[in-house]
Specification:
The structure is a single chain. It contains seven helices and ten strands. With about 240 residues, it is α+β, with helices and mostly antiparallel strands. The longest helix has 18 residues.
Length: about 240
């Protein structure tokens, strides 16, 4: 099964050192939530490889020093990184059979029209149950996004066809994350379970994986309430 865990936010200038801390927190949490790679007697830590748009892929350990070096390399290769943000893409090196994990982020910049983002794409065996809410919580706590979700291609297709979703605007999935400003707009009689993430925002448990009808219904309700309004353009801050 393929799922995508996403977080989006507006301009937030940050140095490479701060981004390395956020990346390290993300990889550490994901390693605790995903199966341990390798045999029991092998090194249980997840390892990663960079996947740049051009140039060679390099192995990377999920520690601050390695991530800082990778971020600085990415910045040196991109003349636009200071304004648009630093782009880094990692893929799991030697995941368990049937698994693929890719995590990509564009962060640390101050563009007025380009969202900053963290997108994790996870492919797992069909019989594997993943803690979607915990994965999205990990992204929320590490990156403090404006909004985020967990879903798949079927969710996106249903929202585009049945609810008029436009790519690049806030969305929801089986699970959704809302920053405090968005969470304040959720109707008082909202029926789905919600979980407060102190100092970060709110997580909405909307539907079981595969239930696109319930996701579409939730999207319609939240959009009418103004919860899913886009960030103003030009953007002036990271959250609504």
């Amino acid at each position: 099964m393929r799922r995508v865990v996403r977080g989006f936010w507006g301009p937030r200038q940050e140095p490479a050192e701060a981004l390395a801390e956020r990346w390290s927190a993300t990889l550490t949490r994901f390693a605790r939530l995903l199966p341990t790679p390798g045999e029991p007697e092998a090194d249980p830590r997840w390892t990663w490889r960079t996947a740049p748009a051009s140039g060679p892929s390099r192995p990377l350990r999920p520690d601050g020093a390695s991530l800082l070096e990778a971020l600085r390399t990415a910045q040196a290769a991109d003349d636009w990184s200071a304004g648009n943000g630093t782009s880094l893409r990692l893929v799991a090196d030697g995941p368990p059979p049937g698994w693929k994990v890719e995590i990509a982020a564009l962060a640390g910049g101050t563009p007025e029209f380009l969202l900053q983002s963290l997108v994790a794409t996870i492919v797992s065996p069909d019989d594997e149950r993943l803690p979607d809410a915990d994965l999205l919580t990990a992204v929320a706590e590490a990156w403090h996004p404006d909004h985020g979700d967990v879903g798949d291609r079927a969710v996106t297709a249903a929202l585009k066809k049945e609810a008029g979703l436009r790519i690049g605007t806030p969305s929801v999935g089986w699970v959704a994350f809302l920053s405090p400003g968005r969470a304040a707009r959720v109707p008082a009689d909202w029926p789905a379970p919600r979980k407060e993430i102190p100092g970060v925002g709110v997580l909405l448990d909307i539907a079981a994986p595969g239930d696109t009808a319930e996701v579409v219904r939730a999207y319609d309700l939240l959009k009418k309430a103004g919860v899913l309004d886009p960030l103003p353009h030009p953007m002036t801050g990271p959250t609504l």
